[in-house]
Write a structure and sequence with these properties.
Strand content: over 45%
Helix content: under 10%
Radius of gyration: 13 Å
Distance between the termini: 40 Å
């Protein structure tokens, strides 16, 4: 049974930083591409970032480029999302997810096979 468990969320003031973690069990983590998504209140879930199997490739939505960094440690079966210069509009529940293949469009939710339960990030102004 594949499980993804996010942690590291919380409340922070605008301009602050948080680092999310996603611990994966029940599968060979290094065989999967990892993505991060978020869902703000009243909005649809949106893609944030993705990283390939050995971290050779990354992808970000424009609104987080230069502020967020996705990374992974395959030896620890853990993925990360470092979030700096946080803004109130970053407030959302953040989810990690796994998929097999890297593609031109990493934002397609149905391409992801496994999902975590999410962790809340709240940025106050």
């Amino acid at each position: 049974q594949v499980q993804l468990v996010e942690s590291g969320g919380g409340e922070v003031q605008a301009g602050g930083s948080l680092k999310l973690s996603c611990v994966v069990s029940g599968c060979t983590f290094s065989s999967y591409v990892m993505g991060w998504f978020r869902q703000a209140p009243g909005k649809e879930r949106e893609f944030v970032a993705a990283i390939s199997w050995s971290a050779g490739s990354t992808d970000y939505i424009d609104s987080v480029k230069g502020r967020f960094t996705i990374s992974r440690d395959n030896a620890k079966n853990t993925g990360y999302l470092q979030m700096n210069s946080l803004k109130p509009e970053d407030t959302a529940v953040y989810y990690c997810a796994l998929r097999r293949l890297w593609a031109r469009r990493m934002a397609v939710e149905r391409a992801y096979d496994y999902w975590g339960q999410g962790t809340q990030v709240t940025v106050s102004s």
